[in-house]
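User: Show me a protein chain along with its predicted structure.
Assistant: Here is one chain, sequence first, then structure tokens.
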Amino acid sequence: QVQMIESGGGLVQPGDSVTLSCAPSERSHIPTFIRYIMAWFRQAPGKEREFVASITYNNRSTVRTDSMKGRFTISRDNTKNMAYLRMNGLKPEDTAIYYCAGGLVGPGAILESPTTYADWGQGTQVTVSS
């Protein structure tokens, strides 16, 4: 199992932008990262973990189709084994722990389901407050 490491969270004001980063830990051997489907999930206090966005090895991305679309962008750099989540126009309701997930996902997998992904990070807190 590969440990993912998230970074970039913190306390921000409404309307601010933040970029979260994700990479396999240095101790993880991940020669197949280029084949990984990467995703971001988030979990707010008292709520279930929810899908935010995913991206395939060839940069086909999916963003949750509600208030996140148009504000959030997922990207990856396979040369650096990195995945990113750019969040613009942050709102207080975006406050949550954001988790990076990844895995070798076969055809037909439900990318919006957390059970699809084998490898997870411990999360990074994003708090949006004035």
